[in-house]
Specification:
The complex is a heterodimer of chains A (172) and B (121).
Chain A: H1 6-10, E1 17-21, E2 60-63, E3 73-74, E4 79-84, E5 89-94, H2 100-103, E6 109-112, E7 119-122, H3 123-136, E8 141-143, E9 151-153, E10 169-171
Chain B: E1 5-8, E2 14-17, E3 19-22, E4 32-34, E5 42-49, E6 53-60, E7 76-77, E8 91-97, E9 100-103
Antiparallel strand pairs in B: 1-2, 5-6, 8-9
The chains are: A alpha+beta (172), B mainly beta (121).
């Protein structure tokens, strides 16, 4: 939805172009929280305005691409681990794509892409994540380190709630 | 984490974790990509102004699971949550096999008097 998209002409070529991405839950999070109910039923993109469900006083993080006209956002931190709200502690293993020799100008960056399915990790970080996931699933995970590869667990997702797998998260 | 997980109906059902391998021989695969499933947890507002000045504001999606958080809160570092399971095997002092140490193995809950086991390390 770039500035040159024809949609902006249809909308009268506004000087400030606004759109949002407001998705509902589609992979049924009852496996992580048995009484989970989605707040909204449909996924929408609002063009020319933002959803009224979100207001400026809500907690938010605002940032811009690292270069004008670019699509990459600079990352200062990206990790996989867990936060313990009760103990007020956290532990995250670094998964940031820091290797400038391997990644060049793409090092320490992220991008938002609706045309990609899940979370894409470059090879070094993917392998590290695969090892970490194996640890927290007691070896039940299998990750394919190859094109289109991802990870699978041998049982259905609800089977891993009791071991606390869904308490793990990504922090950036 | 649950943002990127989904049950698969194939082969009796398994849990797919869509953390996906990026082949860094390709430039677009050298960055960390937050794809469509990410937006189940995070609501995004885009603003394009001027020639190509883009800003993005991320909020906790109202559909998100309770532990989803947008903010700057930082807690003290706790103990590692990636502990490697360890099993301590004491050698059996009364026997060995070709000079290699042996171990006693006990299994509870089995009433078969003629039981034997394969141990796969």
């Amino acid at each position: 939805m770039g500035k040159s998209s024809a949609i902006w002409t249809i909308l009268g070529s506004p000087a400030v172009k606004m759109f949002d991405i407001y998705m509902t839950n589609f992979n049924d999070w009852t496996f992580a929280k048995s009484d989970y109910v989605a707040f909204t039923a449909n996924s929408v993109m609002n063009l020319g305005d933002f959803s009224t469900n979100y207001i400026s006083s809500m907690a938010q993080s605002t940032f811009a691409p690292s270069t004008l006209g670019g699509y990459l956002f600079e990352l200062t931190e990206f990790g996989f681990g867990k936060t313990d709200e009760t103990a007020q502690t956290e532990y995250y293993e670094d998964l940031k794509n820091t290797d400038e020799n391997a990644y060049g100008i793409w090092a320490n960056s992220t991008s938002l892409a609706l045309n990609f399915r899940g979370l894409g990790l470059p090879s070094i970080e993917f392998k590290k994540f695969a090892n970490l996931l194996a640890l927290v699933t007691n070896g039940e995970s299998t990750c394919v380190t190859g094109k289109s590869g991802y990870c699978v667990l041998s049982d259905t997702c609800d089977a891993y709630a009791s071991m606390g797998l869904w308490d793990y998260d990504f922090k950036m | 984490m649950a943002s990127f997980a989904a049950n698969s109906d194939n082969d009796g059902g398994f849990c797919a974790i869509f953390v996906e391998f990026l082949d860094d021989r390709f430039d677009d695969s050298k960055t960390i990509i937050l794809g469509g499933m990410f937006f189940q947890s995070i609501y995004a507002q885009y603003t394009i102004s001027g020639v190509s000045a883009v800003s993005v504001s991320l909020f906790e999606n109202l559909n998100a699971l309770p532990q989803t958080y947008v903010g700057s809160k930082i807690f003290a570092q706790g103990e590692s949550v990636f502990t490697v399971p360890q099993a301590v095997l004491n050698t059996y002092a009364l026997t060995d096999r070709n000079g290699l140490p042996s171990f006693t193995a006990t299994v509870s809950g089995n009433t078969d008097s003629n039981q034997y086991y394969y141990m796969d390390f």
